[in-house]
Amino acid sequence: MELLSTPHSIEINNITCDSFRISWAMEDSDLERVTRYFIDLNKKENKNSNKFKHRDVPTKLVAKAVPLPMTVRGHWFLSPRTEYSVAVQTAVKQSDGEYLVSGWSETVEFCTGDYAKEHLAQLQEKAEQIAGRMLRFSVFYRNHHKEYFQHARTHCGNMLQPYLKDNSGSHGSPTSGMLHGVFFSCNTEFNTGQPPQDSPYGRWRFQIPAQRLFNPSTNLYFADFYCMYTAYHYAILVLAPKGSLGDRFCRDRLPLLDIACNKFLTCSVEDGELVFRHAQDLILEIIYTEPVDLSLGTLGEISGHQLMSLSTADAKKDPSCKTCNISVGR
């Protein structure tokens, strides 16, 4: 039987967090003969990969020959925001059951995308299921070391400046390494209604009245839901003043929440005053997308411990947790 030509000129497009379309060129004489495609897909390893994640193996996909381009899809072997290399081979099944195969094509590289809005909506739905009841609160707070606040006063015009979000949380989050903001907390202790006296981030705390950051002129977005091999879960929300750069970034990428009616963080008018509530059973991480003036709040030292084990800095999401993972990417 005549040998098959080697596939060439591979093109990759329509890339999502867990799929891509692939096409290539081959001799016209092979188009009617080829019955199978072999696709060799490999993840490019990097030194920052999650050591606790299950080991990925090279994936050789066998597909029935179909008109090109063809879509390759599968969350069990494709992760979001990950670099891959791919090569293809064609084959003809012979009468004796053996395959006549072409040579392997050249190898091309591509990177999968972030979670789209519909994927984040699935995460949001999962987070809503465990959010619990809503508790009142009155301040957002940010814990850090004393030197951090001294630097803001001395070198940043008394402002807390937005910085780039790290890679904590879901690997497919469109905010990681892309969105600038200042992180705040708002969770309160059930028995006191006040912020906890312990913190993983430092013994100094800046508190600001909730209405300074969260009001009818602010948009609220859902950004992520994750855990770190623990029983408790985190939700990341974004507060962005309407029309700001942060708001424009989030508008195309994140689900928008109704500030007065959602399961995570609300701002509503009651008896003519703004009332704020947070979900009891989630640890909320709030990203405020604009600089924050220290003169709008108070700074003081807390009396509790620095619980480093609760830090989420560059925290990797548990890919095996059924509560906070979706069947898209990993």
Automatic annotation (TrEMBL):
What organism is the protein native to?
Macaca fascicularis (Crab-eating macaque)
Q: CDD domains annotated for this entry?
A: FN3
Kindly state one GO CC term assigned in the UniProt record. cytoplasm
- Which InterPro entries does the UniProt entry name for this protein? FN3_dom (IPR003961), FN3_sf (IPR036116), Ig-like_fold (IPR013783), PHYHIP/PHYHIPL (IPR042868), PHYIP/PHIPL_C (IPR045545)
Q: What is the name listed in the Swiss-Prot or TrEMBL entry for this protein?
A: Phytanoyl-CoA hydroxylase-interacting protein
Q: Which family does it belong to?
A: Belongs to the PHYHIP family.
Q: Which Gene3D superfamilies match?
A: Immunoglobulins
Q: Function, please?
A: Its interaction with PHYH suggests a role in the development of the central system.
Q: Which SUPFAM superfamilies match?
A: Fibronectin type III
Fibronectin type-III domain boundaries:
6-115
Q: Which UniProt keywords apply?
A: Glycoprotein
State how it assembles: Interacts with PHYH and ADGRB1.
